[in-house]
Known about the structure:
Layout: E1 3-5, E2 12-14, E3 16-19, H1 33-45, E4 50-52, H2 62-69, E5 79-84, H3 92-106, E6 111-119, H4 121-128, H5 133-143, E7 146-153, H6 157-164, E8 171-175, H7 186-195, E9 199-203, H8 217-226, H9 232-241, E10 246-251, H10 256-265, H11 276-291, H12 312-325, H13 328-338, H14 353-357, H15 364-375
Helix pairs in contact: 1-2, 1-10, 6-7, 8-11, 12-13, 12-15
Amino acid sequence: MKYRKFGKTEEEVSILGFGAMRLPVKEDKTIDELKAIEMIRYGIDNGINYVDTAWPYHQGESEIVVGNALNDGYREKVYLATKLPSWLINKYEDFDYYLNEQLKKLQTNYIDFYLVHSVNARSWHNNLLANNLFKFLDEVKKDGRVKYVGFSFHDELPLFKEIVESYDWSFTQIQFNYLDHHYQAGIEGLKFAAEKGMAVIAMEPLRGGSIATDIPADIESIWKTADPNRSPVEWALRYVWNYPEISLLLSGMNTLDQVKENISFTLNADAESLTKDEISTVYKVKEKYLSKIQVNCTACQYCMPCPHGVSIPGAFKYLNDAFMFEKFEMYKNNYLTYTKEENRASICVECGECESKCPQNIHIIDELKRIVEIFEK
């Protein structure tokens, strides 16, 4: 296992972190605790020293299982990370309530790395700043319940920079992989935070598994031509590790074999260790994926808000991902699961207001009709 300095702190973390949001489950969808504990402890025994969980993972069960896994001396071997459910904060007292409940579930009296979870514009202003977040963070660091504070981010770059500069954060967690250079915080946010001395954790290095399994044949060919012995997973993880600004990446592993495989990938994963030819291969794959995009939407939001409620950029992202990864049923299910009925493409009344504002001159009405045909019928 390799380790890197965690930003301006004096801590050193394993470059592979264990993300406990995709633990193995039984038929009834509850966590298979025996398998999960075996996986977590195997990872720790083989050098992983960062374990990450959160309040909502596995319907609140993840923190409990992680707490059980860290019994028998394992708590002392790791940095434990969990997250404040920002969207549930409605008054100042809520901050303490959730942290204290998490300490009980995790069977510990302190959290090494505590993140404000899934920050976006709404939660930042309405839930966090409105209820005196910074006072709470100061207090929990002072009383010892938390050693270091950071935030995980799910919004656009300007807000990311605003948040970085708003407090003396130790670290941040952003989505980062070879396809998402300009998504949310992106490369610019990565470098901005690192220049402030913050550690940066990469989440979704495999884009939710989309670039890990069931690879389209034309993309598989590029990988195999470059190195027939290196899997798409190894390529993706090595690419993220190549950035010296990344302290660690989180992998939501759900089998023991995945844990073993990912640990093996760390052996050659030094920063700036990929050759020019290897980086060129990654960019060829990226270009091939991007060539499959159907709608040239940049998510600039100029079309929003739709007067009738359609989530226009969100709908286009599901459409593009379905074609990019050739996983139509998966993204149809995601679209129907995560897009509320009142925000779906079928709500469009063809008023045309969005098209008059789109700087990309996208025929939005026609594309929304395509989405209805593909995802809603």
